[in-house]
Design a protein that fits this description.
- The chain is globular and about 75 Å long.
- Helix 3 links the parallel strand 1 and strand 2.
- The two termini are about 25 Å apart.
- A five-stranded parallel beta sheet has the order 4-3-2-1-7. It has a two-stranded antiparallel sheet with strand order 5-6.
- Among the domains are: about 40-75 and about 305-410, Rossmann fold; about 80-235, Up-down Bundle (Four Helix Bundle (Hemerythrin (Met), subunit A)), CATH 1.20.120.980.
- Helix 2 packs across helix 3, helix 4 (about 85-100) crosses helix 7 and helix 5 crosses helix 9.
- It is of the alpha/beta class and about 450 residues long.
- It is built from 14 helices and seven strands.
Length: about 450
């Protein structure tokens, strides 16, 4: 057992400030230990929370790095950041609709669960159709597990599929096929225009099992992973450091609003969010000493902020399929627009889900992601050689996604930069190879070697 979870005095060290301070201490140590010169240039990068850390590290310790790449980083999803609390689940819905799902079918299936959860006969039907594990059997309102828990289980599966809607099979969260959202939408097709509860619910189960049980090997549906003796088809029941940070300093103002914003039950709004969050945190961490005084609603604003007018050398990338893109920097974020001359870049990437750009290159990557990676390397070259006549690099628009894009026979690509692509510029496009010499006389292979030996990888 990890004693860190047992008492609040230990959990109190779990902060972004502490993580960044640790990295600030680690970098000089690493350089000294492995014989790197003190002036070795460092680029920090990360995806999701790691992207937030990369951004904040660049803001808080700018002398320790020459730049940061923040992929899928929701750095403005906080009180005062200007993002609607329902933004995340609105993008979830958009991703499903753009993948062929019928909104009314999903809405009707959730309504059927709500209705059936009110009667003994209905609850029995839900347990049977969804094959609920005997340790998490749902009952009437007020019992340990109810139809509300079943809906939350389904909601998380739907949300996670949108997050990880990659074009090739992955096991990042669960084992899933390529484009899992499209697969889920196909499984919902038999229920389109149906008013039969059974038809709706079996289709919804089939769809959500693209996430929880694509292999079909999970014997039952488990609503609480701590209560079942298998992991497939179950929500995690273990402690989660991210949850604790959401109950202290990283207070992400997010909740489902219900239709028409999203598919799910409305649990709060901008006015009631904080009360909802306090209740949620008390239920999880109250037993180890958490109180509402631990919530620092404006901690991220006060520690780091989201005004980038004085910042330099940060790449922000957000996939349009990714629900977290709702809270990435945008044209209204101070210091983001027309800021390439300061090394600030903001890319919205068509056909990309959660930090796809940071994953291993794959033959099934969309062209938008391939082009993005090529541009990122050009930006790195400028950060490493800022006096080059090719700098600052001016970003160019990434391609969209064709409706016919449906790759197959996918495989990972190793050691083949720049993947047959070309260097984009504002006025021309020049082909490059791995032997091309950069503007400052540094070969691309050397630049990549410099990057790889200088990278500090934050947790994805």
């Amino acid at each position: 057992n990890n004693a860190s979870w047992a008492k609040i005095s230990e959990l109190g060290y779990l902060t972004s400030e502490q993580a960044l301070a640790d990295y600030a201490m680690f970098l000089p140590y690493y350089k000294e230990k492995y014989g790197f010169p003190n002036d070795t240039k460092v680029i920090v990068f990360g995806g999701s929370y790691g992207g937030m850390l990369a951004t904040w590290f660049r803001l808080k310790y700018p002398t320790l790095t020459v730049g940061a790449w923040a992929s899928s980083a929701p750095v403005i999803y906080f009180n005062g950041g200007g993002i609607d609390v329902g933004g995340f689940d609105a993008v979830v819905k958009r991703t499903y609709l753009s993948s062929g799902c019928d909104s009314e079918t999903i809405d009707n299936a959730f309504q059927a669960i709500t209705k059936l959860g009110q009667t003994p006969e209905g609850v029995e039907k839900l347990n049977n159709i969804f094959q609920i594990n005997e340790n998490t059997t749902i009952g009437l309102p007020g019992e340990n597990y109810t139809a509300t828990d079943l809906k939350f289980y389904i909601q998380q599966g739907i949300e996670y599929m949108a997050m990880t809607d990659y074009p090739y099979p992955t096991s990042f969260l669960e084992d899933m096929p390529g484009f899992p959202v499209k697969q889920a939408c196909k499984r919902l097709e038999p229920a389109v225009n149906s008013t039969d509860d059974d038809v709706l619910l079996y289709a919804l189960l089939d769809a959500v099992n693209v996430y929880y049980n694509y292999s079909g090997e999970a014997p039952t549906t488990c609503l609480d992973g701590s209560k079942c003796d298998f992991t497939m088809g179950a929500l995690s029941g273990g402690p989660d450091g991210w949850d604790f940070q959401e109950c202290t300093e990283v207070i992400i103002a997010m909740c489902a609003l219900g239709p028409p914003n999203d598919f799910f039950d409305s649990v709060c709004n901008a006015t009631t969010f904080l009360d909802w969050q306090i209740n949620y945190c008390s239920n999880i961490y109250g037993a180890v000493g958490w109180t509402e005084d631990f919530i620092r609603l404006n901690a991220i604003r006060d520690l780091y902020g989201w005004d980038f007018t004085s910042a330099s050398n940060i790449i922000f990338t957000n996939g349009i399929l990714d629900p977290w893109s709702s809270a990435g920097v945008n044209e209204n974020t101070p210091g983001i627009t027309n800021a390439n001359n300061r090394g600030i870049y903001n890319y919205r990437v068509a056909g990309s889900a959660h930090h796809l750009d940071l994953r291993q290159p794959n033959t099934c990557d969309p062209q938008s992601v391939i082009d993005l990676r090529v541009q990122v390397v050009e930006i790195f070259k400028c950060w490493l050689n800022p006096t080059s006549t090719a700098c600052p690099f001016i970003q160019t628009e990434l391609p969209g996604i064709l409706s016919s894009f449906n790759p197959s026979n996918c495989s990972y690509i190793f050691g083949q930069y720049p993947w047959g692509e070309s260097i984009p510029t504002a006025t021309t496009t020049a082909p490059i190879t791995t032997t091309t010499t950069g503007a400052a006389g540094t070969s691309i292979a050397t630049v990549l070697a410099l990057c790889l030996t200088a990278f500090v990888a934050f947790v994805v």
